[in-house]
Request: fold
Amino acid sequence: MATTTDLRQRVLPVAAMALAAVLIWYLGAWVTNAPGAIERVLAPAGIPWNWQDLLKATTGMERPVLPAPHQVALDFWSSLADWPVDSPRNLLYHVAVTGETTLVGFVLGTLLGLVLSVLIVHSRTLDKALLPWIVASQSVPVLAIAPIVLVILGSLGFSGLAPKAVIAMYLSFFPVTVAMVQGLRSPQVIETEMMHTYAASRWQSLWLLRLPAALPFLFPALRVGIAASLVGAMVAELPTGATAGLGARLLTGSYYGNTLAIWSALLMSALLGLALTSLVALAEHLVLRHRRQP
Amino acid sequence: MTLTALKTVPPAPAGNPEATRPAAEVRNASVIYPAADAPVKALSNIDLRIEEGEFVALIGPSGCGKTTLLRVIADLEQISAGTVLVNGVSPHDARMARAYGYVFQAPALFPWRTVLANVMLPLQIQGRDTAKSRLIAIEQLARVGLSGFEKKYPWQLSGGMQQRASIARALAFEPRILMMDEPFGALDEITRDRLNEQLQQLWQKERRTVVFVTHSIAEAVYLSTRIVVMSPRPGRIVKVIESPLPDERHLGLRDTPAFMNVAHMVREALADGHHD
Reply:
């Protein structure tokens, strides 16, 4: 019974939306590629063509404006199947590079966010002094910050992973900080007073009450944070000369007008993002499994 | 009296006091909240002496300062004037020496801890050995009738069971004073009666000093050896009634003329305080 309900309430709507998306995608591919297909494929051949030839041509071009889904799927698959994992032609190689930056940046950002939120919650002065700057930091576009960070850290002798991780951290610490400030302040008066009657130290109140109480606030922020870290990692790959990583792959694809490569990299980064957020969701489920679901 | 008091006082953490020393002593204490127009006198010139082993109920209408008085003794609120001593020292020192356990209106159990871990919390804060704390917590839960619920989470327990767990937590480190701020106020009457009976039996066994805030006359009369009747604006004590009821009590006592007589005295005192 549960499976029937699941099928009707979850699987069917998702499947219907996916089908609609694929149809719209094909429609888009036909429309956007038609002029190019006529000009470069059908007209030069010099023989009469009908609408079926046009449909076929629009979905089989080498550099289409919008590649058809099956083209992207084939290119995606060939990059995984036809090249060794350590080859730059294999998308998994780029996933490893970007994934490493994302995770390092995410861990650093989470730690920074935790430290900042603990400082802010425990000091009224820091609350007043830090929070406006933290909010302001996020209004500076990461695309403007990234080259500066790379140049400065590069001049200090940091290259490769470190500068990219710093940029990923820059994006991911913010949601963690904001959510943890709220979460650490979430215990009720009665709970703090109870710790007070036990003569608990500040550190004990933090460890035994505030931090566990903040966990339900932390995990949604981590999901946002890891996605932001992925964006930061990919943006950081752009100004470095673009040799490795999904961001670099996107950039080289657009240099050479290789739309198939762009779409494959896009698909791969979406899958990576999905995998990373699922990982956080799994951790959330494990950590909070005993708490009552509201 | 002296003999029983000595025999039944729970083990003291430091220094055995002389038998005459009160568990709590409030002398001429006032609590005034500053306000823009007229300062609010939450407590005015309170004098109260609570002996060791007593069960004292503070009763009165809302706003009479009964909870404030309890919070003053527990160092959760500061007095504006006067003196307060708990076990002969200031409320702050008494709190730091873990002299009392406090039961709030709500159970305030941490939802991320099992019932057992919740009861172990104060012991953990005191840095006690985990294995020993576990044994103590299991024993405390048995005392409030919660054996078998150690591994449950708070939301799996009924309201009455949660409050019992919070009493076990307050008693975990064997404090010499137990302070309770309307602990059964949010519970239904049937649960409340049962918990009153259990609390009474617990006190019978241990004769630990209890200070109990309530707005229920029946609860105050049934539980306490002394009833402190308070009145609002300004918060003050209007009458202290020594209960003539026997120490051995059961719920049936509430239908006896003696019980009704005490309840009547309390009601009169409350009415007097209101009409001043």
